[in-house]
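Honest question from a wet-lab person: if I give you the sequences of every part of a complex, can you actually get the arrangement of the whole thing, not just the pieces? Trying it with mine:
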Amino acid sequence: MRRWLALLRGFRNILVKELKELMRDPKILLGMIIVPLIMFPVLGGIMSFSMQTAQEQAQKASVLVLNNDDGDFSAILISNLSTTVKVFVENDTSPEEALSRNLLSHYNSTQFIEIPSGFSINMSENLAGNKSVKASVKIYSVFSGSGMFEDLSSSMFDYFIEGFNRQFQPNIVYSERSSIIKGEIKNVDPRMLSTLMLSQAIAMPITIMILLTYSMQIAATSVAMEKEEKTLETLLTLPMDRFAVLMGKLAGSIFVAGIGAVTYMIGFNFYMGSFTSSFSAGANVDLVSLDLVPSLFGYLLLGISLFVTLLSALALAVILSAFAEDVRGAQSLVGYIYPFLFIPSFVLMYVNIESLPFALKMALYAVPFSHPIIASRAVVMGDYWTVAFGIIYVTLFTLAIMYAASRLFATEKILTLKLKFRGLRKNKKEPVE
Amino acid sequence: MSLGVAVETVGLAKDFGSIHALKDFNLKIEKGQVFGLIGPNGAGKTTALRVISTLLLPTSGQAKVFDLDVVRDAGEIRKIIAYLPDEAGVYRNLSGKEYLEFMGRFSARNRNELDEMIRQAADICGLGERLKDRAKTYSKGMKRRLLVARALMTKPKLAILDEPASGLDVLHAYHVREIIKRYVKEHEVTVLLSSHNMLEVEHICDQVTLINKGIIVAEGKPKELKERYGSANLEEVFAKVVGFA
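Yes, you can. This is the full assembly:
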């Protein structure tokens, strides 16, 4: 009994000490408690807002109907559709003609329904008792590769046709789906395409997130380790340009992080491959023939975008680690950048940035880490200008950060900077040796 | 007979916010001297060494190394000095030899010069075959010997050594002190070292400056100081100077 009491007393003493030590460490308090408390509600808010926006847009969307049938049933279908969405009708127009006449942008729509000739005749036959005859409509949707919510408007048509059929006969009308990719009609269901592109929509943000997280940790640790071991002082008194120290550290971190990223991508590819192979079994969808694989130039732009972003993240990590006295401090400080990394990654995984309200869109564009994710979508769609602007912005950001980092290394600040949490603890004066 | 001035500071001051680490700090070190900066922890020794080795900028006053200004000519000064920080570490995953090669490449003009430096360093530190092992397997004393060897192998005009024997046991400390004494004699290097171990300083320094709370409180040759204050050793001198004894 006595032994147990002693054990309990020892345990309690250690526990109280640990809690005091940990909870009084402002880096832990901020990094582990306050940051998640802010980050996840913000993330949730953006996500629910994005979903709401996507739904609203789907409801507000206008639909172009190419009516090539002159019977009564097509008129009923159009009138029913008008009660759900805004409808524009063009008579006797083929889908190819609609595209060549730019009717979609004219009516500010991203999809059209073709009611083929014979629609009403087929409907009448079916209703007269010939169940083997069915009527069809063809739905064409513009594929934008904009993330997981792309299917929302597509599912709206399913509900509509189901409702229409309920009025007459179950399964009397069925729909055929096609995609419009880069202005051309491709005979592939956009929903299947979205499923296939999903792996890409998830893989890229996650890869970028991990690559940047790894490399920032490496860069911050390498500087903090030099400070902790006091090897940095020796380095800074050597006969060389201090910019070389900074560049050497950044290059080393990029190299190691690069190896990590490649290994990760290979592993992730196997992981995603196990899903997509089961998804696409029998679907026979070839992304190359659909022109949904980036060109060599696209890959090059994506590489540049990723590189400048990586450089900005590393320079930022080096600056932050200058404020830390040891490795633990540096890693905690780098943690403050993570929300800026995680929020754009998660948001862009699900949502097309263009569908977001202006302020939110600008906020995401302002975060340099968003750009390689945006670029990864844009190169697939051949939108090279978006990628180029992103590269220019991140390059300017990187130059500014690199300049700040080089100034830090050029002065005594790299040794004397310390982050002060004035609000959290008394600003104690430490003795100077 | 004076051989010229290696280091000179005039009215040097260094502040960290409201803390005055150095105040009106005037120092003159002759070439070829082993000069000791002594004082208790927190006296400002490291700050003075860091300013002279171009790591910190003076808040006011002037510091010159071989007539080069620490602010204006920092790059030139770094070519002729070697600085050994207090409690400095070595790269854990490099072997001792790799560490010396890494450091030597910044000064050596060619492979032969580098090889000669490494040979010198190996001789100074006396680590022998252990130089091939990774530094993380070294004891504290071995690391310090490696670092002292690194600082001296380039034959700097001025070696700035902050607590060169700090944390070492008697034998390792003795070894490090012997290295410094021998090297200065052989290569006419000027050494500025700091220590809070006043007995140690007495053994190797030609000239010493006693510093307390950022201010120079006494200076001279160890023997002169002992005579002036009627003390048996520098520890007693210091205690008398600061009014502790």
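Two things worth pointing out. DSSP finds nine helices and ten strands in chain B. The CA atoms of residues 100 and 150 of chain B lie 6 Å apart.
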